[in-house]
Automatic annotation (TrEMBL), chain A:
This is Aspartyl/glutamyl-tRNA(Asn/Gln) amidotransferase subunit C. Allows the formation of correctly charged Asn-tRNA(Asn) or Gln-tRNA(Gln) through the transamidation of misacylated Asp-tRNA(Asn) or Glu-tRNA(Gln) in organisms which lack either or both of asparaginyl-tRNA or glutaminyl-tRNA synthetases. The reaction takes place in the presence of glutamine and ATP through an activated phospho-Asp-tRNA(Asn) or phospho-Glu-tRNA(Gln). Belongs to the GatC family. Gene3D superfamilies: Glu-tRNAGln amidotransferase C subunit, N-terminal domain (1.10.20.60). Coiled coil: none annotated. GO terms for molecular function: asparaginyl-tRNA synthase (glutamine-hydrolyzing) activity; ATP binding; glutaminyl-tRNA synthase (glutamine-hydrolyzing) activity; transferase activity.
Automatic annotation (TrEMBL), chain B:
PROSITE patterns: AMIDASES. Its EC number is 6.3.5.7. Heterotrimer of A, B and C subunits. GO terms for biological process: translation. The keyword Translocase does not apply. This is Glutamyl-tRNA(Gln) amidotransferase subunit A. Belongs to the amidase family. GatA subfamily. It comes from the Bacteria. The active site is at residues 78, 153, 177. It comes from Thalassoglobus polymorphus. Keywords: ATP-binding, Ligase, Nucleotide-binding, Protein biosynthesis, Transferase. One of its GO terms (molecular function) is glutaminyl-tRNA synthase (glutamine-hydrolyzing) activity.
């Protein structure tokens, strides 16, 4: 199993990861190697097997619909890299405004 | 010297008035000062707050107030578990400056039990790794041989307990991250049934696999710590509301007619000779105590690592998408021309280390359009077959015994360039996470060169009491199972 550098760049884009050219090169080899190993799963007959997404046998766990205290605004903003004290600040996303 | 006394022995000393919590904490801080320059288990030691907590416990004791079960006992916390007011870096540049604004459920429980939080321990970045070599900040060394890995990802917690810096520590286990470092460092490490311990406040890696669990130097202490942190928590919707029975009360009662399952394939290729010998000696020890040994089949176990390295990275790629440089965590410096997407990519590219990027990429690939069915869905189906293997096996036996890791602690640097070989370290531990069942690693002696060897026991879901009693049977008959490194 080999992964091309284009494949790696495409996945990096999906994952919103900026990679250096060295990393792209390295991951193409390593991810290909790992995916090659993982191909052994194809030996297993999984017709009529239900996928198992979770180990705990619990579904639809709801809390009662009651208003509860949540983090105060200043606490929620405490770790923000950029804030005006009220909001998280991001680069401009609309043109011309 | 108190630093190699068990938590239970230390509690007895506190209760009898032979020592105070302040003295105890000072002794452990002294021990950290003396040895952690070589071991590097701690990312941060919080001496002041620990001593304050200890003083408060001493005051409560002196005043005859009711104190918790761990009152005055020092404990270390893996740095992916949130403690209010402490950093929670996950050993990542991404969270280097992140300070927790609330306590995890387990930390609330520990504080209520009176445990004294001593500091944050090192790990592989975001708990991804088997050697602590993926930490962005420091390399933890194995107290038994400083040139070797302590295991991972909870290597800091394991090393801190092994070197007498704390009697107890918390770790997290997603594919073996408690049990493997426990075996490398010669301590007890335990992963509870999925859902037993709330994940509220544990930084998510792979949510369907992550569980918090105890490190200790003996089985009784591990049981005591688990009892102190488990229980239902409505803030974690996968926390199960199943009654917890006391583990400590029946611990000393041997299990009559104990049936132990062994899997022949576990003893075949890839297993280190000395690890095989120690595992076989452990089996003999059980046999001499009247246990029956029976072969069981886990035909799909060999696909465990492959299924895991699709499922865990897929969940990680989703979980770690929260690190966008906006709400918290590392943000790349930006100029006016940078778009929001550029900022995400740059922040993540700078903040994450190589292994984390590798797993995010692997997960994003497996979940991407056109590959989802072939990889992710396929892995989930194989996961069910693996879980069913265990259910069938446990119809015939009480516990399954195997090595914890195929080798003793490996040399630092030995596997860093070969991720797949590193992943194969988890071959015996990963099944428990996929199936959600509890497992424990206990020391089973040392190799000729003095490295600890661990043996793993697995039990059916929610059968922690049986698991601990079985582990204690071995420990009580094998004094060498309680090891301390010369340092």
């Amino acid at each position: 199993m080999t992964l091309s550098t284009e494949d790696v760049q495409k996945v990096a884009k999906l994952a919103r990861l900026k990679l250096t050219p060295d990393e792209v090169e390295q991951f193409a080899g390593q991810l290909g190697h790992i995916l090659g190993y993982v191909e052994m799963l194809n030996e297993v007959d999984t017709d009529n097997v239900q996928p198992m997404a979770h180990a705990a046998d619990v579904t639809n766990v709801f809390r009662s619909d009651e208003v509860q205290a949540s983090l105060p605004r200043e606490t929620a903003l405490e770790n923000a890299p950029k804030t005006d004290g009220k909001y998280f600040l991001v680069p401009q996303i609309l043109e011309g405004s | 010297m108190n630093h190699y006394k068990s938590a239970s022995e230390q509690l007895a000393q506190l209760q009898s008035g032979e020592t105070t919590s302040v003295e105890l904490v000072q002794q452990h801080l002294g021990r950290i000062e003396a040895v952690d320059g070589n071991v590097n288990a701690f990312l941060e030691v919080c001496s002041d707050s620990a001593l304050q907590q200890a003083e408060e416990i001493d005051r409560q004791r002196a005043a005859g107030e009711k104190v918790g079960r761990l009152a005055g006992i020092p404990i270390a916390i893996k740095d992916n578990i949130c403690v209010e007011g402490w950093k929670a870096s996950c050993a990542s540049k991404m969270l280097e400056n992140f300070t927790s604004v609330y306590d995890s459920h387990v930390i609330e429980k520990l504080k209520a039990a009176g445990a004294v939080l001593v500091g944050r321990t090192n790990l592989d970045e975001f708990a991804m790794g088997s050697s602590c070599e993926n930490s962005a900040f420091q390399q933890t060394n194995n107290p038994w041989d400083l040139e070797r890995a302590p295991g991972g990802s909870s290597g800091g917690s394991a090393a801190a307990v092994a070197a007498g810096m704390v009697p107890l520590a918390l770790g997290s286990d997603t594919g073996g991250s408690i049990r493997q470092p426990a075996s490398f460092c010669g301590v007890v490490g335990m992963k509870p049934t999925y859902g037993r311990v709330s994940r509220y406040g544990l930084v998510a890696f792979a949510s369907s696999l992550d569980q918090i669990g105890p490190f200790a130097r003996n089985v009784a202490d591990a049981a005591l710590l688990l009892e102190s942190v488990w229980g239902h928590d409505r803030r974690d919707s996968t926390s199960v509301d199943v009654p917890t029975s006391s583990l400590s009360d029946q611990l000393e009662e041997p299990l009559k007619g104990l049936k132990i399952g062994i899997v022949p394939e576990h003893f075949s290729n890839g297993l280190d000779d000395e690890v095989r010998d120690k595992t076989e000696q452990a089996i003999e020890s059980y046999r001499s105590q009247g246990a029956t040994i029976q072969e069981v089949e886990l035909p799909y176990a060999k696909y465990g690592v492959a299924a895991y390295y699709i499922i865990a990275p897929s969940e990680a790629s989703s979980n770690l998408s929260r690190y966008d440089g906006i709400h918290y965590g590392h943000r790349a410096s930006s100029d006016g021309n940078m778009s929001l997407a550029d900022l995400y990519e740059a922040s993540r590219g700078e903040g994450f280390g190589p292994e984390v990027k590798r797993r995010i990429m692997l997960g994003a690939y497996a979940l991407s359009s056109g590959y989802y069915d072939a990889y992710y869905l396929k892995a989930l189906k194989v996961r069910r077959l693996i879980a069913e293997d265990y259910q069938k096996a446990f119809q015939d036996v009480d516990v399954i015994l195997s090595p914890t890791s195929p080798t003793p602690a490996f040399k630092l640097g030995e596997l860093v360039d070969d991720p797949l070989k590193m992943y194969l370290n988890d071959i015996y531990t990963i099944g428990a996470n996929l199936a959600g069942i509890p497992g424990i690693s206990i020391s089973a002696g040392q190799t000729a060169s003095g490295l600890p060897v661990g043996v793993q026991l697995l039990a059916p879901a929610f059968e922690e009491a049986k698991l601990f009693r079985a582990a204690r049977m071995y420990e009580s008959a094998n004094s060498e199972s309680r090891l301390t490194p010369a340092m």
